[in-house]
Amino acid sequence: MNIVAPAGNYEKLEAAIKAGANEVFFGLRGFGARRNNQNLAINEVLDAIDYAHSRGIMTSMTLNTILKDTEINSMYNNVKRVYEHGIDAVIVQDLGFIKFIKENFPGLRVHGSTQMTVANHVEAKKLEELGLDRVVLARELSFEEIKSIREKTNVELEIFVSGSLCISYSGNCYISSFIGGRSGNRGLCAYSCRKKFTDEKGQEAYFLSPNDQLLQAKEINMLKEIGIEGIKVEGRKKSSEYVFETVSYYDNILKGTPRPTESYKLFNRGYSKGYFYLDNKLMNFKYSSNFGYFLGVRIGDTNNFRIDDDLILGDGVQFVDENFEAISGEYVNKIIFNGERVQKAQKNDTISIGKLPKGTKYIYKNYSKEINDRIIHNIKVSKRFSTIDGKLVAKKGKELELKFEIENIKGQKIVAAVKGDILEQDAKRMITKEQIAEKLGELGDTSFELGNISIDYDGTTFIPFSELKALKRECVAQLQEKLLQSYRRKAPEKKEYHFENKSENVTPIFSALVSNEEQERACCEAGIEKIYHKQYDVAKEKNLGKIKVDTNLASNLYQAIMGEKNGLKGQSLDWNLNIFNNHTIEMFSRFPNIETVFISPELNHRQLRNIKSDKVKKGLVIYGYLKGMYIEHKIFDEEYKELEGEFYDKYKVLKNDLNNIELYLDKPMNLIPKLDEILECNFDELRLDFTFESPEEVREIIESLETRKGKYNPYAFENGVL
User: Quick one: 656 exposed, middle or buried, by C-beta within 10 A (0-12, 13-18, 19+)?
Assistant: First the structure.
C-alpha cells in the first residue's frame, strides 16, 4: 500500500520523499484544486519528476479542476512537457478533460480526484471503463463502504487518511463560487465553511467546520488488509515539517514499527477519524483556526496556568478567550515556575509566562521548538536511495568490467556498463571480494545505494582502486542518465476538435424540477409538461438501495450509469455533475440514455454561447434556489434551519430523507428578466427549479416567462467565476 504524499513546493517534495513516500503529487502553478498554493513552476515540475524518479518514487500532477474549453486547449502544451519528461500520472476531476488526456497522451495514467465524488462501486467500475487507472474515493465513506467497493471493483483505490476535511462533498460545493465568484471546483475556494455562522435562534458557532482527519495504526492496517492501493496524506498548504512527520508516521505503521503521532502538534484545528466509523466526532463548532493543541486554562484572574504538556523557551502559544476566539499569540521568552525563571517546564507544572492578554481563558501551544528543530534536522540528514545491483569482472589479461542495473517504476530493467584497462599485474597484497564490494558500495552523494553485488575475481590480479573509483563514477552517471531517459516519451500530434450545434435557431421547451406534489400540481396547471422530481446529489454505497434509478433526471453518475444499463431513454443529466465544457458534453453524449445535459450555472452568458453539441440537447436552469453544499453528515437535528455568515450571507438548510444536509443560498437565482438574451444561446430546454416556493409563487414565476418581470438575480450569469 503506497503512501501518496503532498509536495506543495520543492522543499515539501524532498521532505515527503525523505520521510518514506512512495508517490508524490504536486500542482503546476496556476492549475489544480489549490491554485492559491505556492505550487511549482514548470521547470520545478520537471526537476521534481527527475528527483523522484531517481529515487524510485512515482509522480502525479494535480489537474483536478473543471475547465473551460480554452483552458483545455491552452493546457495541452504544459501537459505535453511533463508527459514527455516522464510524469507518471495526472489527477483529474473534469470528465471531459479525462477524455482529452486519454486521446492525446497515450500511456499516461489518469487518477480520478476526490472532487469526482465517487462514492460507490458502480461509479468506480464505470470510471475504469472510461480509462481511469485509479479512483480517489469520496472522503465521506465508512470503512465498511470502502471494503464493499474494494470487493466489487478491480480499479486501484486511494483513500484520504489525514488532513483537512471539506464539510461538503468535494466537487459539490459552490458557496464561495456563488457568493464571491471564487469557484472551489476551479481551485479558488474561499473556505466559507470555516467562518462563524449564526442560526435563526441567534446561536453562534462554526456550524460548518469539521475537525481534520487523522487515521492511525488500526485504521491503516484495516485498509491494508482489504487491498487498498494508496493512502493519501493531505497537506500541500501545510509546512514541510508537518509533511515529513505525517508521512514518516504512516511509513512507520506500514513497516510494522508504529509510534505515537506528533502531527497534531504541528497543525491542529481538532482531529477525528473522519467518516471511517460514521461516528459523531466529525465537527468542531468551537473554532476553525489552527490554534495548536491544548496547553492550559488560566487560573482565575492570575497569570498562572497548569500546563498539559512540556513547555520550553522558544515555543509558540496562542491565547484564546472563553468563546474560543483567538486574541493573540507569541513565542515564549520566559517561564516562571515556583517563583524562578526556568528554561523548561514539565507537564502538570503550574507556571507563568508573563502577563496574559485581557480576556484570555485558554492557552494553546501552536509551535513546538523541540519538535520543529528535531524534524528540520531529520530532513537535512535523511537520505532516500534507489537500490541498484552490480557486477564486476576482474581477471588478469582482460579489461576491468563494471555493470550496474536497476528496475524503473514501469518494471523496465536499466543497465549501465563500462570497461577499463586490461589488468596485467599480480597483486602484491591479497585483495578480498569484501574490500572490492566496500569500494563499489561507496556511492557518495548519488541517489543510489548498492544492493546485490556479483564479483568475478580471480583472486590474484592487482585492481587499481583509483581506476575502480573512476569506473564506478562513470557507470553511476551513465545509469542515472539512462534511468531518467527511460521515462521520456514523445507525445503524438495534438488531436483537433470541432463542436457544432444541431441548428442555430432552437425553440426551447420549459421544464420544472419540483420538491413536492403541490408544486407539481401548480406546474401542471400552468402548462409545464416536462417535470422532474428532486433527486439526491450523491449515491453513497450504503444508500444504493434508496437511490431511484428509473428517474428522468440523473443527479449523480450512478443514476446515469444505471439509466444506461436499464435501457432508459430521454434521461437528463443535472448541472451538479459540473458540465463546464464541450469535451464533457461529448463524453456524456456517449451514454445512449442521456438526451439532455444541463450546463453548470458557474458559466457566464458569454461562455454559455460557446457550449455546443449536435449529439445531445443542452439545458439551462434559469430560476431556482442554488444548492451551495451537499453534506453527508447530519449536522443538525432540525429538518429546516437558517444560517447567516459573518458577511451577511444567508442560507436555507434542509435535511433530506437520507439525513444528508442540503444548504441553499437564501435568494433564488432568477435569469427570467434576461430571457431574450438566453434564447440567443440556443438551449433546447430551460428549467425552473422549485424548492421552497408555495404553489402561488410557482404560478407567479411561470407567468413571468411571458412578462419577463421579477427580481433579476444573476449570480454567475453576468461575470462567471474565477
Answer: middle
Coil vs helix vs strand at 230: strand
Chain segment 146-186, per-residue pLDDT in tens: 999 999 999 999 999 999 999 999 989 999 899 888 998 98
Amino acid at 21: A
Where residue 717 falls (left for φ over 0; alpha for ψ -120 to 50; beta otherwise) is: alpha
DSSP string, 324-360: S-EEEEEE---EEETTEEESEE-TT-EEE-SPPPTT-
Rounded to a whole number of angstroms, the distance between the first and last alpha carbons of the chain is: 37
Q: Beta-strand (E) ranges in 395-467?
A: 399-407, 413-422, 448-457
Burial of residue 97 (number of CB atoms within 10 Å: 0-12, 13-18, 19+): buried
Residues 6+ apart with CB under 8 A from 444: none
- C-alpha distances out from residue 38 to 34, 233, 240, 397, 722, Å: 9, 18, 13, 59, 18
Question: In the predicted model, is pLDDT for residue 413 greater than 60?
Answer: yes
What is the pLDDT, as a whole number, of residue 32? 52
C-alpha cell at 165: 476535511
Q: Classify residue 566 by burial, with Cβ atoms within 10 Å: 0-12, 13-18, 19+.
A: exposed
SS3 assignment, position 125: helix
3 state SS of 163: strand
Nine cell digits for residue 460: 590474484
CA 558 from centre of chain: 21
What phi, psi does 479 have (nearest 5°)? Answer: -65, -45
Could you count the other beta carbons within 10 Å of the beta carbon of residue 433? 15
CA-to-CA distance for 270 and 278, rounded, in angstroms?
17
Instruction: Return the half-sphere exposure (C-beta side, CA atoms, 13 A cut-off) of residue 697.
Output: 11
525-562 pLDDT tens trace: 999 999 999 999 999 999 999 999 999 999 999 999 99
Task: Dump the DSSP string for 652-699.
Answer: EEEE-TTS-EEEEESS-EE-GGGHHHHHTT--SEEEEE-SS--HHHHH
Distance, in Å, from the CA atom of 324 to the CA atom of 320, rounded to the nearest integer, reads 5
At 227, the amino acid letter reads G
Residue 459: other Cβ atoms inside 10 A:
11
In this structure, how many other beta carbons lie within 10 angstroms of the beta carbon of residue 362? 20
Query: Residue 689 is placed in which grid cell?
Result: 427549479
Model confidence over 224-237: pLDDT tens digits?
999 999 999 998 78
Helix (H, G, I), strand (E, B) or coil at 550: coil
- Mean pLDDT over the full length of the chain: 95
